[in-house]
Specification:
Blueprint: H1 4-18, E1 41-44, H2 55-67, E2 77-79, E3 87-88, E4 91-92, H3 110-120, E5 124-129, E6 133-134, H4 135-140, H5 151-154, E7 155-160, E8 169-172, H6 179-193, E9 197-200, H7 208-221, E10 226-229, H8 238-244, E11 247-249, H9 272-285, E12 294-296, H10 312-325, E13 329-331, H11 340-346, H12 349-355, E14 362-367, E15 370-376, E16 382-388, E17 395-400, H13 401-404, E18 409-414, E19 420-425, E20 427-432, E21 437-444, E22 450-453, E23 458-459, E24 464-466, E25 477-479, E26 487-494, E27 498-507, E28 516-520, E29 523-529, E30 541-549, E31 552-560, E32 568-574
Parallel strand pairs: 1-2, 1-13, 2-5, 5-9, 9-10, 10-11, 11-12
Antiparallel strand pairs: 3-4, 6-8, 7-8, 14-15, 15-16, 16-21, 17-20, 18-19, 18-21, 22-32, 23-26, 24-25, 26-31, 27-30, 27-32, 28-29, 28-31
Helix pairs in contact: 2-3, 6-7, 9-10, 10-11, 10-12
This protein binds alpha-D-glucopyranuronic acid and calcium ion (CA).
Residues 479-480, 482, 565 line the site of calcium ion.
C-alpha cells in the first residue's frame, strides 16, 4: 500500500476535481503549524540504541526501514534521540553561538550529512533537544547569532532545567531581549541541517515559555517541522500542548530500564506493565487528540520478537491500543534484526489505517481485566477493540452495539486477520488469552452516520482549506471568504428517498452570528439558519436539522447570507 497521507491527498484531489466551483489553496499561515495532520510513523533511537547512537547505527536503521519495506507502509521518520552531544565537566560543549555541539566520535560526518543520507532514502529525519541554555554558553558568554546579545543576558543561573545527559542547562528568562533570538538561532541551525521532526524532552508545565519559544522558532525557519513534546506532560495543560505542538507524551517512558546492559539498556526493552498503564492515560487524554495534535504513548516495541519484553499477543495489543488511540507509531526496536512475525504485524495496513484514520477512540468498557474501545470513522463504520489486559487466564470481553453507537446488526471484519466474520446482532463478545486483543471493523446494516468532509466539498473562490484551529476532523476545515454568497456544497448519498438528519459541524470564533441558508437539491430548506458564536475558532459545534433526500446523490449547500461570510465549516454528518 502507498503512503497513507499520499492516498488521502490523492483522494481529496479526486473529490475536489469532481465537484463544482473551486479552489484549493495552501493552508493559511496563522497559529497552527499544519504538521502531523496524521500521527507520525517511523523509528526512534532511544529504546534500542539508547545512549550510544552513532551515524553508522542510525544509517543502518534507515537502511532497514527501506529494505524491510516498512517505509512503504508509512514508517518514514528516523529519529535520533538523546546522547548525540558532547559533554565536558561543565555540561554540554557549545558552538560559537552557545548551542550544543555534536560528539564527532559518534557522528564524524555531522548531523547534516546524516539527515542528507536519511533524505536520500526518501525518509525524514528527527532530532532532539531539551529546554534552556547550556552553562558553558554562559561561562564563555557566547554571542547570540545575529544580535548584540550574549548568553549571560538571557540565562537565569538560579535554576537548572531537567536534562538526562550532560545536564547543566540553565533556564532562559524569556522577558530578556535576545532570549527568543537564541532559540531562533538554534532552530535555524536544525532547519539548515534538514531536521523534519524535533522532540523537545524534559519538558514540564514550568517550561511553557520554552515550548512557546521553540514553536515560534520552528515556524520562523519556514521549514515544515513536526514538533513533539516529551515527557509525562500534565493533563491540566493539555489545551496548551495542543495549541503549540503536534504530539505530547502522556506518561514517562515505556522502557522498563530492566535490560541486561548499562543503565538497564538492551533487551528486554519494556514489559507488559509499562504498556498497560497507557490504557488509562490514552482514555484520559482522548479528548485532546485529533488532526495536528496527538497523544504520544511512546515507542512501539515491536520488531524483535519476545526478547523486547512482550509476548506476541501483548505486542499485537500494544499496536491495537496505539492505533485506536491515534498515537504516533515510532518503533523502538532494532530494525536490522526484524523478526518475521513482527514484520507481518507492522505491515498490516488494516491496523495502520486505524491509526491514521484521524480519530482517537474512547474507552467504553473497563471491567476488571477487560476493556473495550470504539471509534467511528467517516465512512460510518465503527472500529472496536476488545482487550484482556490480564496476565493469567482467558477472559471474555463483551460489548453491546448500542454502547458502540448503533443498534441492530453489523457486518464484522477481523482487522488482524482480515477475515469476514459475518453479521452479528446486538452484542459482540471475544474470549481472549491473557494479553490478547481483538480488533474489528463493524459496518452497521441499518442507517449509519456518514461524515462528508468540507475540505472535500465544493467551495467558492476566495475560500481556503485551513488547519490552524485544532479540533477539526479530516484533513482540514473550510474558511470561506468573508462575503455573502460564500458557500460549501456537499454531494450526499441516500439509499432511498427519506427525511434524513444532517449535522453541520462548524466553529465561529467571532461574537457575531454567521447565518447561512441551507439548500437541498436547489431548494432552501432552512433560510438564514443561525450559526452563532461558539466562543472561539477552536470550539466546534453542530447544527442539526432534518432534510428531505432523494434516492442517490443529493447536493446540500450552506450559503453565507451576510457580509461576514460563513463560519469555519468542518464537515456534514448525514444519519
Ligand atoms: C480568523 C480565523 C479564520 C476565520 C476568520 C473569519 O481569521 O482565524 O479561521 O475564518 O477569522 O472571520 O472568517
Ligand atoms: Ca472565514
Amino acid at each position: 500500500m502507498r503512503h497513507l497521507r499520499a492516498v488521502l491527498l490523492a483522494l481529496a484531489g479526486v473529490l475536489i476535481a469532481g465537484a463544482i466551483p473551486l479552489l484549493t489553496a495552501p493552508p493559511a499561515a496563522a497559529s497552527g503549524n499544519g504538521q502531523s495532520i496524521r500521527p507520525a510513523m517511523g523509528w526512534s533511537s532511544w529504546s534500542f540504541v539508547r545512549r550510544w547512537p552513532t551515524e553508522d547505527k542510525i544509517k543502518a536503521q534507515a537502511d532497514a526501514l527501506v529494505s524491510s519495506g516498512l517505509d512503504r507502509h508509512g514508517f518514514v521518520y528516523v529519529n535520533l534521540d538523546d546522547f548525540y552531544q558532547k559533554c565536558d565537566s561543565n555540561g554540554f560543549v557549545v558552538d560559537s553561538y552557545g548551542r550544543w555541539t555534536v560528539d564527532s566520535a559518534k557522528f564524524p560526518s555531522g548531523i547534516k550529512a546524516l539527515a542528507d543520507y536519511v533524505h536520500s532514502k526518501g525518509l525524514k529525519f528527527g532530532f532532539y533537544v531539551t529546554p534552556g541554555i547550556a552553562k558553558n554558553a554562559v561561562l564563555k558568554n557566547t554571542p547570540i547569532e545575529g544580535t548584540s546579545y550574549h548568553a549571560a543576558d538571557i540565562a537565569d543561573t538560579s535554576t537548572l532545567e531537567k536534562n538526562y545527559n550532560c545536564k547543566n542547562m540553565y533556564y532562559i528568562d524569556y522577558t530578556k531581549p535576545g532570549a527568543q533570538e537564541f532559540v531562533n538561532s538554534w532552530a535555524r541551525q536544525f532547519a539548515s541541517w534538514g531536521v523534519d521532526y524535533l522532540k523537545i524532552d524534559g519538558v514540564g508545565s514550568q517550561d511553557i515559555p520554552d515550548v512557546r519559544a521553540w514553536d515560534k522558532a520552528l515556524r520562523a525557519t519556514g521549514r515544515p517541522i513536526n514538533y513533539a513534546l516529551s515527557n509525562n506532560l500534565a493533563i491540566a495543560d493539555a489545551p496548551t500542548w495542543r495549541s503549540l505542538a503536534n504530539s505530547w507524551r502522556t506518561q514517562g517512558d515505556v522502557e522498563c530500564y530492566c535490560g541486561s546492559g548499562p543503565n538497564g539498556s538492551g533487551y528486554p526493552l519494556t514489559d507488559w506493565s509499562h504498556v498497560t498503564t497507557r490504557f488509562t492515560s490514552a482514555a484520559n487524554w482522548q479528548q485532546y487528540a485529533g488532526p495536528g495534535g496527538w497523544n504520544d504513548l511512546d515507542s512501539l516495541e515491536i520488531g524483535n520478537g519476545d526478547q523486547a519484553g512482550l509476548t506476541a499477543d501483548q505486542r499485537r495489543s500494544q499496536f491495537t491500543l496505539w492505533s485506536m488511540a491515534g498515537a504516533p507509531l515510532l518503533l523502538g526496536t532494532d530494525l536490522t534484526q526484524l523478526d518475521p512475525v513482527d514484520a507481518a504485524m507492522l505491515t498490516n495496513d488494516r491496523l495502520i489505517a486505524v491509526d491514521q484514520d484521524g480519530y482517537a477512540a474512547k474507552r467504553i468498557v473497563s471491567s476488571g481485566v477487560n476493556q473495550v474501545w470504539s471509534k467511528r470513522e467517516d465512512s460510518g463504520d465503527y472500529v472496536v477493540a476488545l482487550f484482556n489486559t490480564g496476565t493469567t487466564g482467558s477472559s471474555t470481553a463483551t460489548v453491546d452495539w448500542s454502547q458502540v453507537g448503533f443498534t441492530g446488526s453489523g457486518q464484522v471484519t477481523d482487522l488482524w486477520s482480515g477475515a469476514d466474520k459475518g453479521t452479528v446482532a446486538d452484542t459482540y463478545s471475544a474470549t481472549l488469552r491473557p494479553g490478547e486483543a481483538r480488533l474489528i471493523r463493524v459496518a452497521p446494516l441499518g442507517t449509519r452516520t456518514v461524515r462528508y468532509q468540507a475540505e472535500q466539498a465544493g467551495i467558492t473562490s476566495g475560500s481556503t482549506v485551513d488547519t490552524d484551529h485544532p479540533g477539526f476532523t479530516g484533513t482540514g476545515f473550510v474558511n470561506t471568504a468573508n462575503a455573502a454568497g460564500a458557500y460549501v456544497e456537499w454531494t450526499v448519498d441516500s439509499a432511498a428517498a427519506r427525511n434524513a438528519s444532517v449535522a453541520i459541524r462548524y466553529a465561529n470564533g467571532s461574537t457575531v452570528g454567521r447565518p447561512m441558508d441551507v439548500t437541498v437539491n436547489g431548494t432552501v430548506v432552512s433560510a438564514n439558519r443561525a450559526f452563532n458564536g461558539t466562543g472561539s475558532w477552536d470550539t466546534w459545534a453542530a447544527s442539526t436539522l432534518t432534510v428531505p433526500l432523494k434516492a442517490g446523490a443529493n447536493t446540500i449547500r450552506v450559503t453565507a447570507t451576510t457580509a461576514n461570510g460563513a463560519p469555519n465549516v468542518d464537515a456534514l454528518d448525514r444519519s
